[in-house]
Amino acid sequence: MATIVFCSVNKTAQTTARRCLTSHLKKLSSAGESRPPSTCIHGNPVASLLGTRWFSRGCSVRFMSRGTAGRSASGRTRRAALALSGAAAVTAAAAVAGFLANANHFQRAEMATKVSQAAEESEQEGEILERCMGFMSLPVTNVGVLEERKEEMRTRMEMLIMETQADFCKALQVVDGGTFKVDRWQRNEGGGGISCVMQDGKVFEKAGVNVSVVFGNLTEEAARQMKSRGKVLKGKDGKLPFCAMGVSSVIHPKNPHIPTVHFNYRYFEIEEEDGTKQWWFGGGTDLTPVYVNKEDAFHFHNTLKEACDKHHLQYYPDFKKWCDRYFYVRHRGETRGIGGIFFDDLDSPSQEEAFNFVKSCSRTVVPCYLPIVYKHLNDSFTDEEKDWQQVRRGRYVEFNLVYDRGVKFGLATPGSRIESILMSLPLTAKWEYMHEPAKGTLEAEMLEVLRNPKEWV
């Protein structure tokens, strides 16, 4: 059976630790210092300042498994241990303990989603320093600046994307047994990012989770892309000051029966010549399996639907259709995968409500994907199935390089970090001349779904 052990510490010790952390963080922020990976605890330089016992807001969470929990509970996952923070700890604790303890993967996912919703409802956003303790790295923006403007949307969104990155990375580390390389980078024109990448792991061939916070003046090319989507932007002296931030992830598993997943949630803010600001949110989550699995598809889409339905019953059907249209490889006549949700230019009904919707979506990335990973963790596969995965990855590359807006925007933005932009590409892929699967095969079934998108919920 799986057990969760919570280790608490007294409030006096917490207060002392927090004061030490506050002092040290301010020094790091003012100096722009980042700790090398060798001093990190689970890739977390903030936690390493005080040691593991102070990690996760005064509590550490360990996952331990005893006995047999079905074929999905491999030895490495039973031995995995991980500290998580705040609401992320509650969500992941419920999810991972459930993964290992029960036979029905998707009942466990439902439980994890409910716990995540409860944690979200009780969340208090005020404690910037405490929340930083659970991140993979210090935030991109100086912690002191975040404290000063903690009520602004830019700060709240940066904290959300940092938490989303940390939650997802730590959940993936549990199942893989590997660790993410945490790579901080700066953009000379303004801002920077944090790239977390795990390559050639036990489960994941390549897993990347990026955060970027960039600002400066929008280029004419980038502005034209936005105007083509209906944005009317009026700059001063030909300049449009902007701030863009987001979290983006693409996970390429080794096993062809574990799907590739992608998500991206972002916020954009532009100041016009009269000082007014235009803002909008965008993003989505989508799944790219190599083989059709209706149970997986239902679980993935239903988890997203439940998150959308909390805000508007029309969000899921509208954003599902948008996703199918957006992730369409026109020159192949097929979608990239089985979709999910996708939206852009979301600036209504209010900034607060739009942000709360994005927050709900970001909280689904663990419960919508990890149950599928655990379900297929030990599935056997043939050389032919691996070849088909390589062919499908080739299609993934084609979409990202030819159509993806995020890649286009990144390449058109001066000072962008190419390694982070192209992180979404797999380590290996394949292009076979005139490849067409034989009729009646599972590969042909997958292709039929991609050519004719289905309603999964």
TrEMBL record:
EC number, as in UniProt = 1.3.3.3
Q: Matching InterPro entries, A to Z?
A: Coprogen_oxidase_aer, Coprogen_oxidase_aer_sf, Coprogen_oxidase_CS
This protein's UniProt keywords: Heme biosynthesis, Membrane, Oxidoreductase, Porphyrin biosynthesis, Transmembrane, Transmembrane helix
The residues that cross the membrane are 80-101
To which pathway does this protein belong?
Porphyrin-containing compound metabolism; protoporphyrin-IX biosynthesis; protoporphyrinogen-IX from coproporphyrinogen-III (O2 route): step 1/1
For the protein in the UniProt heading, the enzyme class is oxidoreductase
One GO biological-process annotation of the entry reads: protoporphyrinogen IX biosynthetic process
The record's catalysed reaction(s) read: coproporphyrinogen III + O2 + 2 H(+) = protoporphyrinogen IX + 2 CO2 + 2 H2O
Asked if the Swiss-Prot or TrEMBL record annotates the protein with the keyword rRNA-binding, the reply is: no
**What Gene3D superfamilies does this protein map onto?**
Coproporphyrinogen III oxidase, aerobic (3.40.1500.10)
On the tree of life, the source organism's domain of life is Eukaryota
**Cellular component annotations (GO), alphabetically ordered:** cytoplasm
Please state the span of the N-terminal signal peptide per the UniProt entry. Answer: none
A single MF term (Gene Ontology) = coproporphyrinogen oxidase activity
Which PANTHER family does the UniProt entry name for this protein? COPROPORPHYRINOGEN III OXIDASE, MITOCHONDRIAL, OXYGEN-DEPENDENT COPROPORPHYRINOGEN-III OXIDASE, MITOCHONDRIAL
Subunit structure as annotated in this protein's UniProt entry: Homodimer.
Record-linked NCBIfam families: PRK05330.1
Q: Which family does it belong to?
A: Belongs to the aerobic coproporphyrinogen-III oxidase family.
**Name of the protein this chain belongs to:** Oxygen-dependent coproporphyrinogen-III oxidase, mitochondrial
Organism listed in the record = Cyclopterus lumpus (Lumpsucker)
